[in-house]
Amino acid sequence: MKNKKVLIVDDNALNRRVFENVIGHNYFFDSASDGVEAIELLKRNNYDIVLMDIQMPKLDGISCLKIIREEDITNIPVIAISAYSNQGDRDYFLSTGFDDFIAKPVKPKDLLETIHFHLQPDMSSSLADDNNSEEYSELNEAVIRQLLKYHSIENIKSVYIDFLEEAKNLTEEIKILADLKKFDEIGEKLHILKGNSGTLGVLAIYRATAGFEKKIKQSNLADIEADMACLESGLRTYQRIIENDKIFSKYE
């Protein structure tokens, strides 16, 4: 299957890196950070499938797909990837022309199975199943084991370390925005944190951001100090896990 090539389109660098680690074992790939860059790559190169994030700067996923189809740039499958996950959202994305939909947080197995389904329909059931029901209170090790199927523990560890730095920076930015009462911008930061923590199985942060983001969207600011404290606590917990290193050493 290394003769197939995937275009990954996501404005978040950590998301792109996780997707690259997952699919790199089976496919060639290129990555784009927004819809404008994706269109340029599609015009210059041949791909077999596109993984398209929805919320992006410059040109969002839906607008990008519209240009791709209207200008007849390519007719390959384009898969929507978004944190919106109910059936209504899925139906909407399919109605706009996407060939399929993957909800964030993205599970490696779901990502590969979707790609296989559209590129090699007869092989979609051949992916090894993992015991993904094993879930720890603060970090879901099933995600690490899934990633280990496609990349080395050193590479995976660096992804988790990078996410720790990203989480620190975003949490600090959220604190500043809260003081400035820029709540819309807080929602954007929380959206990134929730998506990346969910993809990596960092439950300590995912739980804190999921509820916090929902309240921000509903303009429920009564408990913002408590929500902020919960997020900072989750970050400290995750930092202890990473600095302890036992979570990774068992796989070396």
UniProtKB/TrEMBL annotation:
PROSITE patterns the UniProt entry points to: HPT, RESPONSE_REGULATORY
Gene Ontology terms: cellular component: plasma membrane
Residue list for modification 4-aspartylphosphate: D53
Keywords (A to Z) from UniProt: ATP-binding, Cell membrane, Membrane, Nucleotide-binding, Phosphoprotein, Transmembrane, Transmembrane helix, Two-component regulatory system
Organism superkingdom: Bacteria
Record-listed Phosphohistidine modification sites: H191
InterPro entries per the UniProt record, alphabetical: CheY-like_superfamily (IPR011006), HPT_dom_sf (IPR036641), Sig_transdc_His_kin_Hpt_dom (IPR008207), Sig_transdc_resp-reg_receiver (IPR001789)
Keyword Acyltransferase: no
Bilayer topology annotation: Multi-pass membrane protein
Domain Response regulatory: start-end pairs: 5-119
GO terms, molecular function: ATP binding; protein kinase activity
Gene Ontology BP annotations: phosphorelay signal transduction system
Domain HPt stretches: 152-245
Main location: membrane
Places the protein is found: Cell membrane
Presence of keyword S-adenosyl-L-methionine: no
Name of this protein: Hpt domain-containing protein
